[in-house]
User: What shape does this take?
Amino acid sequence: METTTATPWLSAEQQRVWRAFLGGTTVLMDRLDRDLRAAHGLSMPEYEILVRLSEAPGRSIRMAELADAVAHSRSRVTHTIARLERENIVLRGQCSEDGRGVSAVLTDHGFSVLEAAAHTHVQGVHDYLIENADPADFEAMGRIMQGVIESLHGRKF
Amino acid sequence: METTTATPWLSAEQQRVWRAFLGGTTVLMDRLDRDLRAAHGLSMPEYEILVRLSEAPGRSIRMAELADAVAHSRSRVTHTIARLERENIVLRGQCSEDGRGVSAVLTDHGFSVLEAAAHTHVQGVHDYLIENADPADFEAMGRIMQGVIESLHGRKF
DNA sequence: AGTATGTAGTTGATCGTTCAACGAGATAGA
DNA sequence: TCTATCTCGTTGAACGATCAACTACATACT
Assistant: This one.
């Protein structure tokens, strides 16, 4: 007789946690995004990209690498960088060593926008997430999400 | 002398956790969404709405209440329900007791779509998230996200 | 009753993301 | 060298979310 693998249903408790996760990430991301937009005209995805650029040598990263770092599609990064370029926050540079390569570079203006935005963002993360969280719980969440990344994103980040 | 409240910077460890959270939710949601779309033509937001409807008395919830339950704007819910209505998964009903009220109702066809989708979804949540997570860590994440919801979503969910 | 204010839900424009298709340069094999 | 095949990055169309404006009904006040 054949054994069909039954779908492993979630326990009531697991379901409760999963829903809290869904709802929590929704309101948290939404709020951080709104705060950033209101104060600096920057969306969360844009902000994340700028952070990566600011930390890279030469404040410059190749498009594909950038896409991988923030886990967005290449197309998405192309569009996002195009928008940021229009605002003079980043610029595109030809990549030496690879004729196809294009790298995004954070401008000085972009860097100062990011510096300002970082305050808003970090304050939000602190107030909405860290403030009322038990540090041990916070660590636990880190372990879990790190595991998720490793299993779904081919061991990156 | 005046004391300006300094931005409470994140520790290296907190930053590590926060980035894992950002990256993890991105790849996790993306994957769950893709699985659902590929197998049942349903997005995550759509799926969440159907779950709420399926649990409600009469498989029916008023638009505003639904919007609040999934933490989406009313406009967004209107559009989403409109799409689902086109596919005969939900239908709109006039709400008795309130002339303005409209309630979304899950159709029988919608219910069977949801039943099928639930297998895919739950399997995903299990495989990508729960499987390799320590149960205590998982509980910890639940506490944190519950706290986030309570502070940002006016104590709902 | 009549007016003002608030809430429910919708609409259409705009903006950001996804998707499929593409051009161009790199890489590997015959 | 020639020709696959792969990766890089872009493009434009389609789709979904956001936003401001709006209609219609409800509620509260006078």
